[in-house]
Amino acid sequence: MRKVIITVAPTGNVPTKEDNPYVPVTPDEIAEDIYNCYQAGAAVAHIHARDENGKPTADPKVFEEIIRKVKQKCDIIIQLSTGARAGKGKERGACIELKPEMASLATGSSNFPTAVNENPPELIEYLGKKMLENGVKPEIEAFDVAMITNVDYYIKKGVIKPPLHFNLVMNVPGSISGTPKNLLHMVELLPPGSTFTVTAVGKSHVDLIAMSIILGGHVRVGLEDVLLYSYEPKVLATNEMLVKRAVQIIRDLGHEVATPKEARKILNLA
């Protein structure tokens, strides 16, 4: 049986408690939610930080506090976000110096619903080199097809090194839509030897994480991407509920859920 990695993205930069009261915002809330998801089957935690007002922040002190609290509870793989909503410049890479096992790296720009997901070439190079220097494995965030094909350029420049791990982010308004055909196309473009996770936003979530498993990939769940467990009837999700559903889908498809130790081997972290 193949081992499938579950990544949980508990917070993100956008959701608020007004959107869903189960969104964790403070370091204590985030760490506790990650621990509950770890117990349910998550092997990787994709972490965003919020300031004292609940706004996105790239402040490494906040990330450091979250990491410390998570490590006190479990050995889940910590993956920090360097995403555009927390800043526009090099400050987004400050958390890399904390030497997490992984960090996100978008290899191009795309659109969000009301803003640009801005990742200029010089910033991509800066973040990629900083990850290399600190022994941090990048997760290549691909919101569109060009973010996959663009990777060859950065490999040749020595900014990132194979074997690569991708997160195929689908159904964000303004970027690639979440259809099975689009997912198949993205998977077919991946460099040989790559591993991949699928993040499917909103109503495409369940279908595409199941398809990812069928195609040999892994899955990401969490309130960063999905606020509702079901739409009809409308049921608010918790991170733990979303992890447990992913566990059930993986098992129903005849596979097993990877532990953090197993995930480290699959992702070439061990």
TrEMBL record:
Cofactor: Zn(2+)
GO MF: 3-keto-5-aminohexanoate cleavage activity; metal ion binding
Keywords from the named record: Metal-binding, Transferase, Zinc
Tree of life domain: Bacteria
Enzymatic class: transferase
A Pfam family: BKACE
Keyword Transmembrane attached: no
Listed InterPro entries: Aldolase_TIM, BKACE
E.C. no: 2.-.-.-
Protein name: 3-keto-5-aminohexanoate cleavage enzyme
Organism: Thermovenabulum gondwanense
